[in-house]
Amino acid sequence: MSEYNFIQIEKKWQRFWEENHTFKATAKSEKPKYYALDMFPYPSGAGLHVGHPLGYIASDIVSRYKRLKGFNVLHPMGFDAFGLPAEQYAIQTGQHPAITTEQNIKRYVEQLKNLGFSFDWEREVRTSEPSYYKWTQWIFMQLFNSYYNYNTDKAAPIQELVEAFEQDGNVNVNAACDEDTPDFSAAEWKRMSEQQQAEVLLKYRLTYVAEAVVNWCPAMGTVLANDEVVGGVSERGGYPVERKKMRQWMMRITAYAERLLQGLEQIDWPEPVKEMQRNWIGKSVGAELDFSVEGISDMIKVFTTRIDTIFGASFVVLAPEHELVEQITTDEQRGQVQDYVTVAKNRSERERMTDVKTVSGVFTGAYAINPISNERVPIWIADYVLAGYGTGAVMAVPGHDSRDYAFAKHFNLPIKQVVEGGNIDEEAYAGKEGKIINSGFLNGLEVKEAIKAGIARAEELGVGKGRTQYRMRDAVFSRQRYWGEPVPVYFKDGVPHLIKEEELPLELPKIDAYLPTETGEPPLGRAVDWKYENQYEYELSTMPGWAGSSWYWYRYMDPQNDAAFADKDVVEYWRNVDLYIGGSEHATGHLLYSRFWNKFMFDLDLVVEQEPFKKLINQGMIQGRSNFVYRYKKSDKLKPIYYSLNKAIEQARSEHYALGAVAITNEDASNLITEGKFSFDILEEYFSKLHVDVNIVENDVLDLEAFKNWRPENADAEFILEDGKYIVGVEIEKMSKSKYNVVNPDDIVDRQGADTLRMYEMFLGPLEQFKPWNTNGMDGVHKFLKKFWRLFHDNDGNFAVSEDAPTAEELKTLHKTIKKVEEDVERFSFNTSVSTFMICVNELTQLKTNKRAILEPLTVILSPYAPHITEELWEKLGHKDSISYAKFPQWKEEYLVESTFEYPVSVNGKTRAKMAFALDTPREDIEKAVVNDEQVNKFFDGKAPKKIIIVPNKIINVVV
Ligand code: ANZ
Fold this sequence. Notes:
Blueprint: H1 6-20, E1 33-38, H2 53-68, E2 72-74, H3 84-93, H4 97-113, H5 130-144, E3 146-149, E4 154-157, H6 158-168, H7 186-191, H8 194-202, E5 207-217, E6 222-224, E7 229-230, E8 233-234, E9 242-251, H9 257-263, H10 271-281, E10 283-293, E11 299-304, E12 315-318, H11 325-328, H12 331-345, H13 349-354, E13 362-369, E14 376-381, E15 393-396, H14 402-411, H15 447-461, E16 464-470, E17 475-476, E18 489-492, E19 495-498, E20 531-532, E21 536-538, H16 552-555, H17 568-574, E22 577-582, H18 590-603, E23 613-618, E24 622-632, E25 641-643, H19 645-658, H20 666-674, H21 681-686, E26 687-692, E27 697-698, E28 701-702, H22 704-710, E29 718-720, E30 729-733, H23 745-752, H24 754-763, E31 771-772, H25 778-791, H26 808-826, H27 830-846, H28 852-862, H29 867-876, H30 893-896, E32 900-907, E33 910-918, H31 923-932, H32 934-937, E34 947-951, E35 955-959
Helix pairs in contact: 1-29, 3-4, 23-24, 24-25, 24-27, 25-27, 26-27, 26-28, 28-29
């Protein structure tokens, strides 16, 4: 074989790797471990486009590099296989989602195998397989059987709690629980019925059923997550969404709030992702204070982060949903209050939080007493106070809080300044720097000191205490859907019970249609004869999409294990993920839930690391480079006429200009268009701009024949060309089917090979950056690989590698390349490695290098990037084993040092020439050479030099 025949080479080695189980990983190894993981994909019907493999290529390079560096590498791939699209398709066609899912996965696997990834395919997992979701259900059961003990700061068996209740009731229990958990004694606990006890325990379990306000979409028959609702309608389909209280499974993630926050300090993740998690968790340190209410015995508890401003609290505001609203409202105000509450309740929390413009509220008629200043203040209701945050009530300090300020201005309530500085009359002074004024015992203190003093006083008076608050809420864990994990629970007298562990997995039953029942129950309600022990109703909702992905990295460690989610020894070996690569859209969903489940599993001693993903990289998106054709509007009704880009601009301009409009040059217009900035107003007045399939465009030139075939209505279309070509318009957009800008990696592999694709994707730019796909640059990378191939072959294409010793120059090129590539991979800078390889191959080509001593190590260091071509050459070099387990060469400093120095030579202080000398040239030889050099000695005026000064590695100065 003489040519670089990538098609044959790539197929050959993909087969070899598969047959030889080259990338099979085992936990029995003396080597250090390295776990490189990609976020596993949802297998959609559209297959992979070139944007998907970007992260996989990067993690594959790292995996292959680590193997060469002597690590035992775990690099698996699998599928997050439950989900809506397969179910929607099932609803439309009646086909079981398992079938669609299977087909899609098959396609994905083929596409992935085409790219030469070093995945250990024997470890593939699919979340929708009963053998997998058995363990998802098992983890759910452990959560159900656990509560969170704040004293030990970890999860513990719920049985311990039952024992504590029997001893002392719950007064001494310090555990995560619902806000409305009542206090009870041991005697009271014992008097409760079994059902009542079960209800109480649900308030402590780490997964529990509870009434929750959810986004209910009647048309879709399911609950939607907040980000699936846009402007009051469903994101998909645009159906109306209501806020509804429903009984839902919940996950008590709030119990882990503090540990989720602290854990961020231990991991090497992008700062923006950490910051998003911090905000999501939303810790705020403050105090709660009891305001007594005139005429009733209940107190209003407020949560404040600024107890230092207590003397400026001029009214109290309750959320419309606050439980005391009814009780405190005076008869006079009742009508108004009721009207207001009805309206406010229908606005979502998000809406209420983001709407800062409308000020609305109503007076209850009641008054409260400030527990520290003893001032009498009015109690109002307003929807800017959220029911679900803090205590659902605030002490309003209009002097220093902008929402309170707007409210006070609007309703003409008193505003008092209690912190120095700012201009209180214009807007609330939010500064936290000044000293406290007008505040009795707090006067003169700095804000921070005043907060401490305020809390101390509240505690002394028994009217409040310090309190830490988290914005994060418990997570809803039910979906009224079919294609998800069944919840391993049945109901007896309305109380949930777990099925027995040995009954796992609880498999999805067969149903006749993937729709809610007539009575509005989830699809599982259709299953016939599906009852626990033939009598008890199973839970009919399924788990949400994030269940299966919250622990999958452990299953890869031991995927076939039937006795445990993974063997403990194996978990102890692989521990956690060293490198995790995936999209930034999972910052607060998957990445937070995974950390939560991991910490829970750690508490139960099932796993050995607190954090699942040590290092995280978000790969940037590869955007589509859309192409457009321009159809002349006047031709619409007759046969279509398409104008090449610049012809279209010209035409639009001349018609527009004829109407007396301002001229714009062709060049300006086309520049603006290609940059996507042009408004297209002029162009689109006369032309319809239509997406055209990027696969029938090359270097921005449209393949006219292909275009006619693509859209039969264009079979007899006319084309106005420029220089005989049809030039398309270009814009950068998201890669998507509807924009016809999707590039399928298979096509690239067919045309130029997987090695070219892999290197090209890395060459596009830094991994984290968003960048447009532009096939135009691919040829360069392909040429590089051909050039590399040629180094090993003579002009007749015969393999010809010499055993001669390398020169210093060759060694220098090699070793600086090894050094740079190693440094680059270590800091995940792959694009710079690709250019380093290119420079190296260019230099070696110039040096006509064909020596084994140079080419062999170079082949090894290139192999993570271009695994197929390097395997082939490695074999030609005489090796029997795969290059995958070769040794990454060590670069040597001695070859990097410059061997010569080019001296500026001056005569009587004036630089006259430049002369290069090897570093070890003896002094006398340099002197001799300088004196004999004509460029230099012509300035001697025939005299002999008096002195020659040589400053090593700097300058030579001749004094005449
Ligand atoms: C008095 C005060 C004075 C406040 C001041 C702020 C500034 P973060 O930091 O987000 O936790 N608040 C408490 N509960 C609320 C609720 N349910 N809905 C809306 N607002 C609520 O915010 C805590 C502050 O937000 C609290 O401190 C309270 O107003 C308000 F110069 O109390 B502050």
